[in-house]
Amino acid sequence: MPGQGPRTPGQDPKTQADRANLEEQLGRLREDVTALNDAVKNLASHGAEDVRKQAWALREDVRQRGEAYIRQAQDAASDLEEEMSERIRAEPIKSVLIAAGIGYLYARLFR
Predict the structure, then answer these.
(1) Contacts of 72 (CB under 8 A, 6+ apart)
(2) Cβ contact 23:31 at 8 Å
(3) Where do the domains of the chain lie?
(4) Contact 95/88 with Cβ under 8 angstroms?
(5) Rounded CA gap, 96 and 107, in Å?
(6) How does DSSP assign the chain, residue by residue?
(7) Which keywords, in A-to-Z order, does the entry hold (predicted)?
(8) Of 10, 63, 76, 88, which has the highest C-beta tally within 10 A?
(9) How many other C-beta atoms lie within 10 A of the C-beta of residue 19?
(10) 15, 9 in Cβ contact below 8 A?
C-alpha cells in the first residue's frame, strides 16, 4: 500500500508462517533422520549376528566334513593294512624277497 512504509521480513505474517512451516519440516526431518539412523544400527546389528551364525554353521560343516575325510582315510589305511597282511601270509617268501629288494634299492639310493 502506498501510505505505509516498507515492511521488514520479520513482520510479514506470510514470512512468519513460512518460517514456522520450515521449522516444523526441519523437526520432522530430524525425527526421520534419527529413525533412519536407528534402523541402520538395527540392521547392522542383525546383519553382524547373521554373519556370525553363518560363520559358525560353516565352521561346523567344515569340521564335520574333515572328520568324515579322516574316517575315510583311516578306513582306507586299515583296508590296505589288512590286504597287505593277507598277501604276506599267503606268500611269505615272495614278501620277504620284495622287502629285501626295496631295502637294497633304498640303501643304494641314499648312501
Answers:
(1) none
(2) no
(3) 14-109
(4) yes
(5) 16
(6) -TTS-PPPTTT-HHHHHHHHHHHHHHHHHHHHHHHHHHHHHHHHHHHHHHHHHHHHHHHHHHHHHHHHHHHHHHHHHHHHHHHHHHHHHH-HHHHHHHHHHHHHHHHHHT-
(7) Coiled coil
(8) 88
(9) 13
(10) yes
Cα–Cα distance, 15 to 6 (Å, whole number): 15
| Model confidence pLDDT, tens digit, residues 10-46 | 557 778 888 888 888 888 888 888 888 888 888 777 7
Residue with cell 615272495: 94
Grid cell listed for 22 = 520450515
